[in-house]
Each structure stands twice: as C-alpha cells, then as structure tokens.
Amino acid sequence: MANVDLARWQFAFVTINHFFFVPITIGLAFLTALLQTAWYRSKRDEYLRLTRFFGTLLVINVAIGVVTGLVQEFQFGMNWSAYSRLVGNIFGAPLAMEGLGAFFLESTFLGLWLFGWDRLPRLVHLLTIWAVSLGTVLSAAFIMAANSWMQHPVGYTMVNGKPQLNDIWAVFTNQVFVWGYSKVLLASLVTGAAVMLAVSAWQLRHGGDTGVFTRSARLALIVLVPAILFTMLVGDELGVIEAKYQPMKIAAAEAQWTTCQPCSFSLFQIGGGNQDQTPTQIIAIPHLLSLLATNHWNGKVIGLNPLQSQYSQQYGAGYYVPNVFIQYWSMRVMAYAGVLVLLLGVWGLWLIRRQKLATSRRFLWVAIWAAVLPFLMNTAGWLLTESGRQPWIVQGIMLTKNGISSSVSATSIVISLVVFVLLYGVLATVDLMLMLKYSREQLPPARPEADVDAPVPAVQY
Amino acid sequence: MKLVPFWFIVITVLWTGFFVLEGFDFGVGMLHGVVGKDEAGRRAAINTIGPLWDGNEVWLIVAGAAMFAAFPGWYATMFSAFYLALVLLLVALIVRGVSFEYRGKRAAVRWRRTWDGLMTAGSLLAPLLIGVALGDLLHGLPINSSQEYTGSFWTLLQPYALLTGVTLVLICLLHGATFLGLKTTGDMRERAGRLARRVAPVTGAAVIAFVIWTHVTARDTFFVNPVELLAMLAVIAAVWLVYSRSDGFAFAATTVTMAACIVSIFTGLYPNVMVSSTNAAYNLTVHNTASGAYSLKVMTVVVVIFLPFVLAYQTWTYYVFRRRVSTQEFQPLPQRSTRLGAPLPPTATPDGGAPPAGHGN
Predict the structure, then answer these.
(1) Whole-number Å distance between alpha carbons of A70 and B80
(2) Alpha-carbon distance A73 to A386, whole Å?
(3) Label partner for A64 (CA 20 to 30 A): which of A58, A166, A318, B317?
(4) DSSP code string of A64-107
C-alpha cells in the first residue's frame, strides 16, 4: 500500500474513534449543566443525584476524548507535513485559537467542577459546569472552521503558489462552516440525549428509581426531538451549500453519473459505483434529490461524468471522482439512522403524553439499543464529508497525495497505525466497560447520612 | 512591533509554562507509588494534582498548535522528523491521562496496580521524550535543503539530547517531590521530603552538566548568559532548600530551575528553530518557517486577549485547591457498608467521600 493510503487509513481510524467520544462530551456536558441548573433552581435532591450520576458518565468520556484529541493535533505534522507547511498559516490559526480559547477553559473548569463540590459556592460551582459546556462548544467551533476551510477555502490570496490568510472574518463566516458547525452541535445534542435516554431506559427496566429516571428520560426526549429535527433541516441546507461548492460530493452521494433535471433520490440500489456506472435496481422518490441539493422542485444536479471532464480541464489530467460507494451508502446510513431516531423520539413524546413512558417495556427496550443510531449517523456523516472531498485535501488547492510527509517511511506509518489500533482498541473496550458499569450503578444519595445541610462531597480520584 | 520574534517568545513561554506546571504532575505521577505506601496514600498523592493536571497538559497542546499557526515550517519538519518518538510520546500521554480517571473506577487490586504502573511509566516517558526532542532541536539533526529530515529514529538519540531528556526527568522528580511536600501532611510529607533529599544532589549535578553542555553547544563565548547562570544558581538553591526543609521556597527554587532550563534551550536556539547538522545554511530559522504577517497579527490579537484570561482562571484554580491533602480523607470508613451508601458515583467505593470534617484541615 502506498504511503498516502496508509496515512489516510490512520487518519480515518483515529478520527472516527475520536469522534465517538466528542459528541457524547458536547451533548452530555450541556445536559449535565441543565440538570445542575434544575437542582440550583429547585433544590430538589433528585436533580442533584441525576447531575452526579450523568456527570460521572461525562467524565469517563472526557478523559478519552481529551487524550485522543492529542493524536488529532500531532498527526497533521507527523503524517501530513507537506500539507501543514503549505496551509499552516491558515489552518493552524483556528487550531491555536481552539487551544487557547476552548481547551484551557474546558480542562481547567472540569477540574474545578469535579473537585469543587464543597469548596465553591453553589452558584459559582454551577457556572463551572457551564464553562465546561461552553469550552466544548467553542472547541467544536474552531475545529469546524478549520475543517470547513478545507472543504471550501476562503479568505486567502495565493502568494508564490502558497495560500496566505488575508481575511480571518471570512474563515468564520464561511457558509460551509456556519451550517456544518450548527449540524455538528445539533448532532452532538442528539447523541448526548440518546445516551441519556438509553441509560434512563435501562434503569427503568431494571428497577432503578422510577421517579428520578423518568425525569431524565423526559428531559432527554424533550431535547432529542427538536435536536434531530433541526439536524435534518440544517443538514438539508448544508447539502445545498455543498452542492454549490463541492458538486462532486453531492453527485457521488447519489451515484449520479449523468446530469439530471429534475432528479430523484434512490432509497436503495445495487451497483452504480466507480467501476459500474449503471445501477441495476432502484427504488426512486421523484424530485427528492432536486430538493435536497438545490431547494428547488425541479433543480438540476450535474453528473459525475460532466464534472470529471470539467475538472480535468480546470486542474489538469487526473481522476476527480470520490469513492462513490462510500458516498452513496454513508449518505443513506446517515439519513436512515436520523429518521429512526426521529421516530423513536416521537414515540417517546407520545408516551409522555399518555403518561406511559416509565412502563412501556417495549419502548424502553428499543430506546436502549437505539443509542447506537447517533454514532452510526455521526460516523456516516463524517465519511460523507471527508471522503467526498477526495482526491483533494484542500478543495481545489492541494491534492491529498501531495500532502503527506515525504521524510516518513511506510514502515513508520505501519508501526504507528498498528500501535494506535491496538491502543484505541483497549481504550474503547475499557471506556465501554466503564460506561456500562456506571450506567447500571444505582443512583447515589445526594449527601452523606441524609443530612440536608451537609456539603456535597468532591469527586476524587 | 516585530511579530516573528514575538511569536518565538510566545512559544518559549508556552513550553516553559507546560514544563513548570505539568513538570510537577509528571513528578507526582512517577512518585505516587513510592510516596503513598498504601491505597489511601497513593490516592492522596494523585489527588494533590487531581483538579490541576488536565489544565496543565493543555499547555502542551497549545504550544504545539501555536507552532503550527506561527511557524508551520517548524511544526511540519519537527513533527515528521520525530515521528516514532512522538508515537511513543502519545502512547505515554494517553495511558497516563486515562489512568487518572480510570484507576479509581474499580476497586479490584489488580486493576489499580495496572493503572498505577501505567501512570508511573507514562509520567517518566513523557518528559524524557520531549526532552530528547528539545535537545535535538538545538544540537542539530540531518536536515536537507528543502527542510526535510533525512535521519532515522536512532539519529534522534544523540548524547546531548539524551542528557536533556534525563535532566528534565530529574527536574520533574525533584519538582514533584517538593510539590508533594507542599501539598501533603504528616507521614506523606515526611516521605516526600526524604525523597526530595535523595533526588536533589543528582538533579543538581545533571542540571549543571546540562547547562554547561548547552552553553558549549549553543555559543562560542566563554561567559554563561544570565539564563544559564540562573538555572545553575536555582538548582543549587533548590538542593540547599530541600535539605533545610523549607517546603515553599524549595518548590519555588525547582520552579525557577525548570523554567530557566527550558528558556536556556530556546535562547540558545534563536534565531534558529531547528539546527541542521548537514549544513548550517539549511538551518530552520524563525524567518524561513514563519507564517504570513496577517496570520501572525490575528494570532497576536488572540493570544493577547486569551492568555491573561487563562492565567487568571488557572491561578484561581490553584487558589481554590490550595489546601493540603491528607491521607485520612482516603481511609476506608467502616460504618459505610453498602455500595449504595457511598456518597459519590465516580469513586463510589466506600472510601470515596470524606466526612465534612476531613475536608477542614
């Protein structure tokens, strides 16, 4: 395998793994902050117990999210040094801002929150968890600004063949960023809420405190339904923007080799990949692709073949079509998982109305297993975004194969890939094991010896 | 203002901040098994840095990201040159980081011993590897005319670089021991003091050797510069203060020692950022690796706004957790029999929570 393929496998592996933990952190930090706010305002013990219960799950994930984030930062220089050298003056800026503005905030205040229970006044302590939540949200903003620049470079001029930043404002008002970032935040809320719902459902099925866990299940559902709805709406808008700036990505997501107008969306098909341009079986919904890609009933979507000849003229000979199989199926996995989450949420809301949430064993069983769906949705969404940018590392500016480190040997990349696979495998197992263990733990009482005025003890290692 | 040198200073400050703060975390990580004789002792040792280490480690992330943004050429060459060393460093930092969170999450002895071992190894390996890397920057590596590294993993392990790594590990050990002296009580404090006295002379000798070698590597004048002088004076003061058992001043002295050693590497480097042993004309300098003027201007605004904030809330964190940690807080409480009775979820073992009185001190 060529160095560039090894480096890409490594990037995909560590990044997909990292993004299992990130959305849980963003989502759960926000939900935990909501629970603690409810405790602050109502002073009801069940909210305190829920805060500490879900706070524990949050901490287990933050640990692994933070350490796998280190790899994310290092690997640009390690595997992609030609890329780093070329675009560091633009791409590096949001990364440095992320460290200064977000990571410090998140890490420092997480320490204050964990260890500060009995040392900080209640309001100050509540603000520390909000600071953690703000840190996670800001961190996503900076990294999404950097990523969006790779999808649709803005705010630069070319000086001696190198892009030079000349408008930072443009980087943070990039349409791809504005919509992509909103989508990531909403999808993280979906993920956090789905995890909270699944844990509450497990507890309700297994004799956990009904009063308390019905509350958390209800909170999760109330966040989940609007979050998944808006994820879909924002995702639709993002699709229109990407169709404008990265038409290959959207055409490949439909395996649309020829230009169409109006365009239908196929629910399922066999074939139609890079080697085989005519799919054999299609269940098509007329006009849906036109709507998704252009917001118009009869919108036109340019096919992969015309785009390929256009790009060959514009950028020189080469193959500019991304992997169509990955595009087509990641689009569908993302969309179908999203629809299932929405259906689950609506079912749950209906049960809340009927006051049967805590007793519908069928719903609770489904809700437990449905926790897998947001992870499928997130991973598929990132595959769609990143694989759809190929063969570019920065759309229109640099090809992925030109971005790698020329001084790093294939052996080195293989060694590091094996090391990361083994290490992440162990970490993911430990994380999952601890998540399951603490999800099944009984609720802690709020304070020692049921003393109403006792301080809430710190969480210590 | 000259932004290129300013950013070299910012990066020096970030690396110094990282080693001064995370330095004692590394030290505590290496020493927690020795200082803490039993489970309660080990937990007390770990909890002295519990609320702090994560925020301290961010200094490393920011130092790396600042190099990426301000000197992309430096970041690209350095990170690809140190490839396998960085893989090892990442493994060390990862297992160490999760060991803090995970060791207390199960009560089994084997579980905790495993994470203890990983914490110790990770805390030792991380400063060693970063030290070797910093030493290599100054001493020089084979780098060709297109700023690409041409050596192998073994080229990195040259004597000066190894001494830099070992010296940093020894400073971390002493720094951690003085920190524990400042943050623990009773027997623990005694043991931390004894350890500090045992480590101090070795650290002192290593620092002096390191400073002399750094001077010889970096300059052709006979006279040491003020930073190098400060490093030597600080380490001598640290040894003396450790033996005269004044915890606070000893910790201040190890802080200055650490800071002066890191700064001496960077002052020795400037205006280079990576020396080429192939040809001095191929040296990476602040000028041939820097970002464009506009990027530096943007980043300057960001750092001037954010860094004071960061310093303010990190200082406040240290103030909030200024209290000494006592092993008594971690002794098992016999009257709490059931798991349910434990007050806390994360360390929900019966010894998880201290009664309010235990927090007084």
Answers:
(1) 15
(2) 17
(3) B317
(4) HHHHHHHHHHHHHHHH-HHHHHHHHHHHHHHHHHHIIIIIHHHH
- Tell me if B180 sits within 8 A of B188, measured CB to CB: yes
How many Å lie between the alpha carbon of B229 and the closest alpha carbon of chain A?
32
CB neighbourhood size of A371 (10 A) = 20
Cα torsion A387, A389, A391, A395 to 10°: value is: -160
Mutate to test the interface with A, among B87, B91, B154 (most CBs of A within 10 A): B87
Residue pair A117/A459 in contact by the 8 Å Cβ criterion? yes
H or E element: which one contains A268?
A: strand A265-270
> CB pairs under 8 A, 24+ apart, for A429-438?
A430/B98, A430/B102, A431/A21, A431/A60, A431/A61, A431/A64, A434/A60, A434/B102, A434/B105, A434/B106, A435/A57, A435/A60, A435/A61, A437/B105, A437/B106, A438/A56, A438/A57, A438/A60, A438/B105, A438/B345, A438/B346
Write out pLDDT tens, residues A276-297: 777 776 788 888 888 888 888 8
CB contact under 8 A, A445 and B103: no
> B104 contacts in A (CB within 8 Å)?
460-461
- Give pLDDT tens digits for B7-53: 999 999 999 999 999 999 999 999 998 988 888 889 889 989 988 98
CB–CB of A434 and B102 under 8 A? yes
pTM recorded for the entire structure:
0.89
Q: What whole-number distance in Å separates Cα of residue B85 and Cα of residue B44?
A: 32
Of A209, A143, A193, the closest CA to residue A374 belongs to A193
Q: Which residues on chain B are in Cβ contact (under 8 Å) with A164? A: 292, 294-295
* Widest CA span in chain A: 77
| Residue contact A112–B104, C-beta within 8 A | no
Shortest CA gap A15–chain B (Å): 15
Q: What are phi and psi of A151, to 5 degrees?
A: -75, -40
